[in-house]
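Our working data are protein records whose layout never changes between entries. The record below serves as our worked example for the rest of this section:
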Amino acid sequence: MDLQSLVREVPDFPQPGIRFRDITTLLRDPAGLREAIDRLHQRCTEATQAPDYVVGIESRGFLLGPVLAYRWAAGFVPARKPGKLPAAVRAIDYELEYGTDQLEIHQDALPAGSRVLVVDDLLATGGTARATGELVQQMGCQLLGFGFIVELRMLGGRQKLPDVPVTALMAYDE
């Protein structure tokens, strides 16, 4: 199945000159969704060992993460924007193109020594994924790798990630 044919391209969104890759069209297609999950699970399994936990990055990582965690009989942990988690958190600040942002994980969500895979829908500049990986490591866990549906190669995000397996189902060069 050609998964790229199920990804909608939206020109000039969110600003002129940007070609937005919208995976909601892939997610709404039952066969495409199943194929994407099956492939991501298979490729991540081939690239590294089964995780104890899957960390999903807000917000589309929340759609992929629980399904993948279920496939590995692992737990799911959300990495959220500040102020969204109700209990005590571990946080990390990271740089954006214009300013900084922060991600949080409940401080009791990942036992030290756990094997963790980080997932999200899209790898762009790599800042959010890198910060999530660093937070996982700061919590005393083994970062197994990253899994994405789409990689925007022209933004160089992969080069900013730690030296662990990075899996993307499809990549765009422009």
User: Anything to note?
Assistant: The mean pLDDT is 96.
